[in-house]
């Protein structure tokens, strides 16, 4: 997915603030789901929430206000009650940042819950054009 760096995502030096990359990762995950015909709301309606329980970010190069970036998102691993996504953020062919997040599948009461087969199938679907 493509995104344009907004001024509010930068620091005093005009460089993307380190915390903004986690927001970019989330945007990538949401887009990844949409490209498979579902949204986070579909999970909530099924009684599943997907909180991030672990995050890793590796910064390679600086990105700045008004630059066009591409977020590449992959669902790397599906386990009984966790999902691991990996990310690459690029500016043209330059790798700006890479990372991963681990999401847990939990109930409304925040107890760990097995990912139902019907929702697990979503993560096996091919991408559809938007």
UniProtKB/TrEMBL annotation:
Hydrolase as UniProt keyword: yes
GO MF term (any one): fatty acyl-CoA hydrolase activity
Keyword tags: Hydrolase
PANTHER family, sorted: 4-HYDROXYBENZOYL-COA THIOESTERASE FAMILY MEMBER, NOVEL THIOESTERASE SUPERFAMILY DOMAIN AND SAPOSIN A-TYPE DOMAIN CONTAINING PROTEIN (0610012H03RIK)
Assigned protein family: Belongs to the 4-hydroxybenzoyl-CoA thioesterase family.
Name under which the protein is recorded: Thioesterase
Lineage, top ranks: Bacteria, Pseudomonadati, Myxococcota, Polyangia, Polyangiales
